[in-house]
Amino acid sequence: MTHQKGLETLDREVEVDSLPTEGEIPDWLGGSLLRTGPAQFEVGDASYNHWFDGHAMLHAFQFQRGDVGYTNRFLESNSRQKARREGTIVQGEFGTDPCKSIFKRAMQLFSFSEPTDNANVNITRLADEFVAMTETPLPITFDEEILETLGRFEYNDDLDGDLTTAHPLYDAERDTTYNYVTQFGRTSSYVVYRQASDSHERVPVATIDVETPRYMHSFGMTRNYIVLVEFPVVVRPLEMLLSGDPLAEIMSWEPERGARFRVVDKRTGEVTGTGTTEAFFAFHHVNAWEDEARGELVVDLSAYPDATIVEDLYLDELRTDEPDALAGQLRRYRLQPDGSELRGRQVSEQTLELPRINYGARAGRPYRYVWGNGQRDGAAFLDEIAKIDTEDGSSTTWHEPDCYPGEPVFVERPGAGAEDDGLLLSVVLDGRREQSFVLVLDAATLDEVGRATVPHHIPFGFHGQYVSD
Ligand SMILES: [Fe+2]
Fold it and tell me: Could you tell me the distance, in angstroms and rounded to a whole number, from the CA of residue 450 to the centre of ligand 1?
C-alpha cells in the first residue's frame, strides 16, 4: 500500500503563484478552497497517537482564470505554541495524553480548564471572519489570503461549553448559523444555540439536560428543526477529569442504550420529541429535510454499525496495510417531529465518508445527490470519490491507482439548473509520487476536468470550504 505518506508530517510552508496544471480548469471557477488538517505528528521525541491530534495546518488553493495558486501555513494555536516552546507535547488532544508522571497528571488537572485549540477539523465563517475549528469551542481566526493566524475568535457572550461540533450549520433563510455545546457537570447539558451571521453572540435556543452525555461530531438541521442523534458513545466527564485520559479513551460504547434522536423546534426552542432506535454510530450527518406530504423529518447520515471506527483512526492502526473499514454507509432515518415512527434504512451499497452536498441550494431541503469518499474492497485507506443518487441508491465513482482523495467539495456552476451542475474539488495524495494534487471533477459525471500538482505531500485532512471571490 502507498497511503502511508498521507500520515507523515509536513513541515514545509510555501506560497506558489501558479501550480503545474493538466486539463482545462474553467474560467468561471474564481475563488479559494480553504482546508485544515493535521500536519505535524511529532514534537521532539513525543508523538501524537490519533489522526485527530496532529498540529493543524491551513491550505489555500486559489483558482483564477484557469490558474491555481497554493499557500500552506501552520495554524499557530496555543496547543502548537506550547509544544514548540517546551520541545514536547504539552497539551492533551483527542487521543493523546502527554502526562505520563503523577506530577504531570496533576498539571493536567489544571489544564482541563484550558482545553486544546488545535483547530484541525473544519473551516467556516463567523461574523465575517474566517475561522478554523476543532471540537472545543475555541475557534481561531485567520487571514484567508496569506493564512496568517490572527488569534482566538472572541464570542461576545458568556455561554460556557466543554465540547462542540466543528460542523456548524448555516440557515440561509434566517442568515444564522446553528451549533451546540456540551457542558459537562454532575448533570451535563447540550445547549443548542444560534449566531446571526454578523454577530459574535451565541444565543441559546434550547437546553437539554442529560445524565450521560454522548460524543456527537455533527447534527442534522431542517428548515424548522434541529435533530441531535445521540449515539451510544458515552462520555463520563468525571472520569476524564480524574484519570486525565484523553477523550478518545474514556468514551464507552454502550449499545444497549440504542441511538436516541432528539428533535428541537428552532422557532420555539421546544424539544418536540425523542425517539430511540437500534444502536449505531456516525461522525457525519449528510442532510436533513421535512417531508411535508408525510409530516416527517428525514435524517441522512454516514452510518457505522458501532464505534470501532474511533479506534481504527489511531495512527498506528492507519499506518498498517491491514484494511479497516474507514467509511460508513448512507442511511436514511424518518421520524415524526414528536419522535414517533422512527425507522431507518440503508440507501446504497456504496461506502461513504466525509460526505458533502450542494449546500447552497439543498441544505435542510429535499435533495438527491451526496458526494464523498469511499473505500474499495481491500484498500487500507479511503481511495475513491463517490457520488450517490439517493433516489435509487446507485453510485458513480472516481479512482486512480495509488491515489487517496480527500473530501470532495461541491462548487455550483453559475446559472446552474440541476442540483449536480458544478465541480468537485478534492485534495488527492498520489502515494507513488509522494505528492498531492488538487483534482477538479465534473460533479455530475465524476469525469476529470483538470488537476494541479502541489510541490509536496499534503497529510490527510478532514474538511474545508470553497469561498467564491
Ligand atoms: Fe467532520
Answer: 26
DSSP track, 261-273: EEEEETTT--EEE
Note down the domain range covering 297. 4-468
- For the record, the C-alpha cell of 344 comes out as 431507518
pLDDT in tens, 175-194: 999 999 999 988 999 999 99
Q: What CATH number does residue 318 fall under?
A: 2.130.10
For residue range 322-375, list pLDDT tens digits in order: 889 999 999 999 999 999 999 999 999 999 999 999 999 999 999 999 999 999
How far is ligand 1, taken at its centre, from the CA of residue 106, in Å? 31
Per the structure, the count of domains in the chain is: 1
DSSP codes joined into one string, 347-406? EEEEEEEEEE--HHHHTTS---EEEEEE--TT-SS--EEEEEETTT--EEEE--TTEEE-
Ligand 1 center to 23 CA (angstroms): 30
* CA 294 / ligand 1 centre spacing (Å): 30
Distance 24 CA to ligand 1 centre (A): 31
How much is the pLDDT for 392? 98
Taking the centre of ligand 1 as the mean of its atom positions, its distance from the CA of residue 53, in whole angstroms, is 14
295 within 8 A of 302, measured Cβ to Cβ: no
List the Cα angle 71/73/79 in 5-degree steps: 160
**pTM, to two decimals:** 0.95
